[in-house]
Amino acid sequence: MQVHVVKSKIHRVKVTGADLNYIGSITIDEDLMEAANIIEGEKVQIVNNNNGERLETYVIPGPRNSGEITLNGAAARKVAKGDILIIISYGIMEIEEAKKFKPSLVFPNEKTNLLN
Predict the structure, then answer these.
(1) Active-site annotation holder among 25, 66, 89, 90
(2) What is the tens place of the pLDDT at every residue in 66-86?
(3) Does residue 25 carry a catalytic annotation?
(4) Which of 18-27, 41-50, 69-78 has the weakest average pLDDT?
(5) So where's the catalytic machinery, residue-wise (predicted)?
(6) Region of residue 113 (left: phi > 0; alpha: psi -120 to 50; beta: else)
(7) Is 73 annotated for ligand binding?
(8) Whether 8 is catalytic
(9) Residue 36 marked in a binding site
């Protein structure tokens, strides 16, 4: 049996932009991606703490050490600049592996989105 488990989480980052005219995705500071073990193109779940919205999209890297968190395309309608998000990715693994697995959890500075 395989189960879905939390692989990575970026906890409480602030939206820095929303670009409705982009083709889709979320742009994440590459430093945050690396710290959370999230790769370009990976599917993520976005949880908006301000309005309760949940959505799924894929990741594109933003400039390192920029703190950028931008929702692109239709997802831009689900956020406002300044909203606080949790970004989660999941892995699928055998249940015995999942019992031992430790996710990559990142808690950036909530004001700047930078790693402390």
Answers:
(1) 25
(2) 999 999 999 999 999 999 999
(3) yes
(4) 18-27
(5) 25, 58
(6) left
(7) yes
(8) no
(9) no
